[in-house]
Amino acid sequence: MNAVLEVANLRVAFANGTQAVRGVSLKVERGETHCLVGESGCGKSVSSLAVMNLLARGATRSADVLRFHDTDLMKLSERHMAALRGDKLAMIFQEPMTSLNPAYTIGSQMAEALTRHRRVSRAKALDRAAELLGRVGITAPGMRLAQYPHQLSGGLRQRVMIAMALMCDPELLIADEPTTALDVTVQAQILRLLQSLQRELGLALLLITHDLGIVARMAQRVSVMYAGEVVESASAEALFAQPTHPYTRGLLACIPIPGASRRDEPLGSIPGVVPRIGPDFQGCGFRDRCAHAAPICAQVAPLQHAAPGHDYLCRLPPDWSAAEAA
Amino acid sequence: MLQFLLRRALLAVLVCLTVLVVSFVLTRLSGDLAISIAGPNATAEDIATIRQNYGLDRPLVVQFLDWAAHAARGDLGSSYLYHAPVAGLIADRLPITLTLGLSGLAIALLVAIPLGILSAMHEGTVIDRGIGLVALIGQAMPSFWLGLVLIIVVGLKLQWLPISGVDTWEGYIMPAIVLAFSAIPALMRLTRAGMIDALASDYIRTARAKGLRTARIVLKHALRNAAMPVVSVAAVQLGFMLGGSIVIEAVFALHGVGYLAWESISKNDFPVVQAVVLFLAIVYIGLTLAADMMNAVLDPRLRSA
Amino acid sequence: MSLRHIAFGLGVLIVGVVLVAGVLAPYIAPHDPFAQDLMQRMIPPEWMDGGSALHPFGTDQLGRDYLSRLLYGARISLLIGTLAVVTSGLIGITLGILGGYFGGRVDDVVMFAITCRLSIPLILVALTVVAFVGSSLTVVVLTLGLLLWDRFAVVARTTTMQVRTLDYIAAAQAAGASRLHILSREVLPNILSHLVVVATLEMALAILLEAALSFLGLGVPPPLPSWGLMIAEGKDYMFFSPWVIMIPGIALFVLVLGINLLGDGLRDMLGAGRRP
Ligand SMILES: Nc1ncnc2c1ncn2[C@@H]1O[C@H](COP(=O)(O)OP(=O)(O)O)[C@@H](O)[C@H]1O
Ligand SMILES: [Mg+2]
After folding, report:
1. Among the three residues B72, B100, B121, which one is the final residue of a domain in this structure?
2. What percent of chain A lies above the pLDDT cut of 90?
3. Is A173 helix (H, G, I), strand (E, B) or coil?
């Protein structure tokens, strides 16, 4: 059986020349959580928007494969894509404060997500909305439905966004840093909710985050992004046990993961900032910040296999760290 | 909300008073009314009589306060020319001006909003530039001249519409179109700017993520938010149109409030002029106030504030 | 060359041509614009039946050469437009900068003044003043100047507010520069690009208003050749000789369009934000 979502060599460029996404490939299976991690600005949001075909005007996308089940999303007309969006394919955005229309009630905005795709009455849709608000942990959902976005806190708005994405029981949910705006207890509640939905509905979840704690807790597979590329992709266990790309190792060093960080590695952030990738950029995007950079890194980095299902994008051999330690 | 409205009402009264004082002083300081009324062949005696009869011999401040006190009670004085109460003169002619202004605004909105939306949806393209150019052309058209050209072409050559007067409703069509012309560019640009902001906003992306159809996204989600400034400016434009209808009424010989004002100005019928200025100022202030309230209805954030 | 450049170029060209025509009117006008010749009344333009090369744009109801009057009319439009903008600019910019810079009570007063100004019915009050004072060029200029400052004030106020918070203003304040110095040397140059755009808009508006006032018989006094007045004088003849209103009307339209195109182009180039 095919993956729910399959992406190969996805590229996005903006009108100002920024190459925000440069060849992202990933797969999300039914019932699986695939985490996309990386620093802020590395292209996570743009990648997910490209999948949904929700990019801002002036952005161009291309891909060798962009498939939802058997449907080629690249060939789909906007009308057919719109029919999928919000129904089988749903997305939660990073910006809870501004993602709801200030002019309409929560109920009205949630209900239309269902009435657009299903033949149900508005009253039925509102019932469904109230039920989902309850499930994402909002008390007195009936009252909330009649309220306007400005009457809700950021945390509540994000939970409304999550509930709204679930109105049609999607098969794939793309969640772009869904818990960043929330406090820790709510965060835990939301993550539990997503896990239980996954069990019940077999939801495929593409979870975008920069929080490795969430990755460790949620992910079956992980793709690490840097400067528009997936630099390492592996199962969650493999990634934490054997991080191979220097960037992944740096990232892991930033946050102590019990049992994953090695004692002899220093804690701390990676020095430097993500470079802006213009149209003429060549070679490995990480080389300016990499302790192992060599002249050859100015050329396109090779895709190597550390193990079956564990790929990374770097000139270094799979066992480079072991060799270095020796 | 109540406090906000009270403050606005107080401000409105203050603005009204200031406008009145300014227009009173401007017009009174600019010449001796008695001489103007008396006409070129009057003797010094005639002028003195007129001055006394009309109370023009009193100090300016007293004249103003007297007038304002009467006006506050709804008594706007009598026309020198018609020897009839000014309020009645205005009321008689108001329907024509109001019909003209409202139909002008309706036409302006019907043209400006779709063009603004279209322009915003195609921002930066040839369509957008073309519509912008149309707005620029509309803005450069002298309205009285446009009126005359329409009279020649549509009225005389094609004989589609009457060239003056409003005996039938068709008589309003040309003047209303000409009046609308002046308001279209501003309304269109505002709609465009508001729609560009709205269409680029995060909540539109949410609406698209829900799979909503383009028409619903544009007309329901974006337009509702872009409409608020348009409502304010539409109210202001209606005020300007009622004031500017003086030119159109002169061109099409419509006997509305504007025509009355023009006539009174040329004939030194001061009480009528003063009353029309007051009337238009009150209408303008009332309209902006109404727009604020309408925005409060449109914007839930203002409603509960 | 994009459409935008073409539009700006067209604006420059139009304004340039009208400017040259106005300035050089005494030298290039074929006739005296005031000279009446009752034997030569209502001669159509050269390109129409009955036209003559002697009067390329024909003659008016008093037999005055239409082209000459048109050329002299350009002077009047530009003169009134420029002087009205200077007057209103002085008033509006001063008020706007004061309100935007000092804020608080000062700003309240400025905002109040702007609201009052907007509540005054423009054409009506202009007409009244001209009617009572008597029509002359000076009166028209002063009346328009005193009435058209609102947009200058609004734009100067908002842009000053934005500029006020910038570092170099704070630095000038810290260095002990006088308020007058800060306002005239630091604030004004930084908001100038926005004001230039407003000036073009106001100039176009002033020219249109002068024409409207003259058309209603309460603007520039006859026999001065204002375009608005030419349309008013031609009105009685327009059914049989439409060109008497077409020629000055088109001149007016083209000049105003040119000024607006110029303003739009300047706004794009100076990055002065959206059209107010
Ligand atoms: N509309 C846009 N126009 C130009 N550049 C953009 C736009 N949106 C995002 N970018 C750029 O694309 C890159 C990736 O952004 P994003 O995907 O939002 O990062 P993140 O991984 O934090 O979600 C950034 O360098 C950002 O500046
Ligand atoms: Mg992001």
Report:
1. B72
2. 47
3. strand
